[in-house]
Amino acid sequence: MSEFDLFVPLAGNDGTPFGERVFKGIKLRLLEQFDGVTFFPQPNEGYWRMGGVVYRDEVVVFRVVTPKRRSARRFLASLKDELKRVLRQEEILIIERDVKTL
To answer: What are the residue ranges of helices labelled H in 3-98?
Structure first.
């Protein structure tokens, strides 16, 4: 079983919020693909360093759990590319973990 966390910024690089429609669309796509999604709507601060400059984003997290690791990776890689393009982001962080359910 694999668990994937998708970290999505709340605003563009110019500070303009993306709006609820973006997040609702992501939730619906993940629900359709994985038959379940957990959304953590509270803003989380993310920091990273690039070229000697520290950047900061506020992000929300979407989580899915699936036994279909390979197809999940393909779907999420495609979604990541789309979100990077549409949201004009250099990167969208997706973390994968092996998990066991009770």
So the answer is: 20-34, 69-86
Give the rounded distance of the alpha carbon of 95 from its chain centre.
9
**Per the structure block, which two tokens stand in for 63?**
């989580």
CA atoms within 13 A on the CB side of 67: 2
What does pTM read for this prediction?
Answer: 0.92
Query: Domains in the chain, ordered, with CATH?
Result: 2-98 (3.30.70.120)
**How far apart (Å, rounded) are the C-alpha atoms in residues 36 and 44?**
22
Which tokens belong to 55? 């950047």
49-65: pLDDT as tens digits: 888 999 889 999 999 99
